[in-house]
Design goal:
- Belongs to the 'GDSL' lipolytic enzyme family.
- The chain is α/β, with parallel strands linked by helices and 368 residues long.
- Strands 1-2-3-4 form a four-stranded parallel beta sheet, sandwiched between helices.
- Helix 2 crosses helix 13.
- The longest helix has 24 residues.
- The radius of gyration is 23 Å and the shape is globular.
- The termini are far apart.
């Protein structure tokens, strides 16, 4: 603050004003940046410069906005609780797990979709998202709804690496790739849509052989990531998909119970996936390949919602909560924080926050 000393200070407390201004600025700065303050503490001398996501609608932050597919949610009421109610293509009322990973790690507030044409090199350096709502391990799953398959996502990842090399050089790119988290979240659509909801695979595969197909695809994808320089790779299991509201409505009987054969297929896949990732972790030098359980806590949430601060576990916030998803979500509940599910398939931001925090608390040291 500047004033003319010849006419004296402008107030009797003038000497305190710079201090007050400084503290006011610091408080304001702290509030503005609170969304990127790390909630998970890393060991000393360890850093995670970026997070990169691959997968489906659980973690898609808007890639489907930029491709020709019916699997889009870039319209209200999606995004109801996202930065003033802005729909962005996230399949929830607010942030999704990919956003929450970078937020909890203190990297940035949101993980942008790679296909966003406005991205700058600064965005790429700290991580991007290749996930596409509707994708699966089975190539047929993505083909049916015309979204980015894992092969497509891998090709975009290669393009991303080339952009990094042009922007920051090969040495720094290699460092970013080796130190960053690469997270894969996919599999639910394969079991619910491609296998159980259509005859396209059931005529050729039983559940055991179909889950083998999925695991083989997961293993191949992880090995491709490793071959491109990724070293810290986390792979989500499949959640208890028989308990999502849509499946309870369609196949859970009059009582809308959890559909056991869906959950059993998810558990079988998870068991095989965990074993395969353990084998890869042993056989790939310098790899930190981690299986991330997303089955047990969601199941506990669904059976014991009040324990976690929720009221409704068998219906989504949007519409009747029983079958609506995407364009069928024409209206919503008044308070999504009471619900575990946002629509009949995807969770609310509040539920995702709880899950992501526990995943990072339980597994972050496994990557180091």
């Amino acid at each position: 603050m500047h004033y003319d000393a010849s006419i004296g200070p402008p107030c009797s407390d003038c000497n305190t004003l710079p201090i007050l201004f400084t503290w006011t600025f610091l408080i304001f700065f702290s509030i503005v940046n609170s969304h990127v303050r790390a909630a998970v503490k890393l060991p000393d001398n360890e850093t995670i410069p970026a997070v990169v996501f691959f997968g489906d609608s659980i973690v898609d932050t808007g890639n489907n906005n930029y491709i020709k597919t019916v699997v889009k949610v870039n319209y209200p009421p999606y995004g109801k609780d996202f930065m003033g109610g802005k729909p962005t293509g996230r399949f929830s009322d607010g942030k999704v797990p990919s956003d929450l990973f970078v937020e909890e790690l203190g990297i940035k507030g949101l993980l942008p979709p790679y296909l966003d044409p406005t991205l700058e090199i600064e965005d790429l350096i700290t991580g991007v998202n290749f996930a596409s709502g509707g994708a699966g391990y089975d190539p047929l799953t993505s083909e049916i709804v015309s979204v980015l398959s894992l092969s497509d996502q891998l090709e975009l990842f290669k393009e991303y690496i080339m952009k990094l090399k042009v922007g920051v050089g090969e040495e720094r790119t290699d460092s970013i790739l080796s130190k960053s988290l690469h997270i894969v979240v996919v599999g639910s659509n394969d079991i619910t849509n491609t296998y159980f909801s259509s005859p396209l695979r059931r005529s050729h595969y039983d559940v055991a052989s179909y889950t083998d197909l999925m695991v083989n695809s997961a293993s191949t994808f992880v090995q491709h990531l490793y071959g491109l320089g990724a070293r810290k790779i986390g792979v989500f299991g499949v959640p208890p998909i028989g308990c999502v509201p849509a499946q309870r409505t369609l196949a859970g009987g009059v009582q809308r119970n959890c559909v056991e054969n869906y959950n059993q297929a998810a558990q079988l896949f998870n068991y095989k996936l965990s074993a395969e990732l353990k084998s890869l972790n042993s056989n790939l030098p310098q790899a930190r390949v981690v299986y991330l359980d997303i089955y047990n806590l969601p199941l506990d949430l669904i059976y014991e919602p009040k324990k976690y601060g929720f009221e409704i576990a068998n219906k989504g916030c949007c519409g009747t909560g029983s079958v609506e998803v995407a364009y069928l979500c024409t209206y919503t509940c008044t308070n999504a924080s009471k619900y575990i599910f946002w629509d009949s398939f995807h969770l609310t931001e509040k539920a995702y926050r709880l899950l992501v925090h526990q995943i990072l608390e339980n597994h972050i040291y496994s990557f180091i």
